[in-house]
UniProtKB/TrEMBL annotation:
The lineage of its organism: Bacteria, Pseudomonadati, Pseudomonadota, Alphaproteobacteria, Parvularculales. Residues 1-23 form the signal peptide. The keyword Signal applies. Keywords: Signal. Residues 27-77 are annotated as: Disordered. This is DUF305 domain-containing protein.
Amino acid sequence: MTRRLKLMTGLSTLAAVSALTLAGCGGEGEGEVDGEQGHDMPAAAGEGETEGGDIAVSDVGESAGGESEGGSVSADPATDDVAYLHLLGLTRGHLIAFHELYNSGAIEMALMHVKHPKSELYTSLAPAFSARKKPGLADELSNLVDASNAGADVEEPYAAVVRGLNAHTPDTSVSNILLAVSEIVRTAADEFDIGVEDDGMISNAHEYQDAYGFLIASREILSGVRTTDINATEAVNLAQEQIDLALSSFESLTVEKTEGSASTLYGAAARIEIAGRGL
């Protein structure tokens, strides 16, 4: 199966599930969120080390959108919460992959992931931080890179980056959070598609590991959403189920072969996007 065919599979899934998912997620677009909602970004997958940093969720409304064909967010992260959360989520995903690999002893693999948030993503995030009057994370990321390169204990510099990410998250709607998560999952699907051959052999471990990190980051984003709106709750629950399904494609970050499929991840991204647009 070629990459183009896999991409088309994801797009076909989006069309096929639209009516059903919208019906289940309040597709009228009228539900509002009452009370406060939070979004926690924990220190590592499954460790529950979140230190503050809730995303306050405003009333559900229309997303700013701004997504280009192929799933990448083209809007300006300085002003668009979906694009901004997408980049924050990718940063968090790289760090999740780094943290798990580093602690498992796969140091060389881990070092590749810790360098990417600053070298690849920070160029886009820095102007957004400035426009949003946020201090940025340059020092925290540098300290983490230095500690990891030295083979030192990375827990404190890692926790400092997580605290920084939490402090930089915006007040936004459940709809925007879901749309951002859908983009993170779609990016994970792209990475999985690059890293895994048609027969399931992993030809690019780094991209495969990125995909895992992005999915864990998405799951943790969703786990912190709090809302009393029934439509928003159902949409978030659906998205969480889709993330769990996508994660079934991963047994370990260092395996040589997987039974998973990029189409599973593309399908999850499509369903989550529909859920977000239905609010």
